[in-house]
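Q: Got a minute? One more chain.
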Amino acid sequence: MTPRALLAAISLPALAISACAPEGDGQGGSSDRLPGYELAAAAELEVRDTLGQTGSGLNSNLIEISVEELAAKLEQGNIRLIDVRRDDEVAQGMIPGADHIAMDEFDPATLDLSDGREIVLHCRSGHRSSLVAEKLAAFTGQPVIHLAGGILAWQAAGKPIV
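A: Always. Here it is, folded:
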């Protein structure tokens, strides 16, 4: 079976099954994705990892950092934090100092990297930022950092939102 066929064989059923899941995050807010998006994305990443095509594992261009590590980097001030969530999610609150470039608008070719700041990506839970990080790493040829657990982990650790 070709890698593409294997990916389709796993991702499509995962998406179909998860489409029956309720929308939302269970906290009364709006859903940050289409039903089943994260499950399908996770299945895709697992298949890509098996095929050696993803940022997780030993050949990784994806670096996950904890909330504590991000807080320390923000305090040092030499990073550019980019929130890749949708506009409606960002309207509910952001990590202080973050820029917003929605995942569907993120184009590594148009990203200004000239100021020398280290890029750190985040989303709601870490799935979308890992996909965007892979895209950016493929473009730059350098590892890219993203926040493990996303803004949910940030909030769970009691960190501020603006």
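A: The helical segments are 3-18, 37-50, 67-76, 87-90, 127-140, 150-156.
Q: Perfect, thanks.
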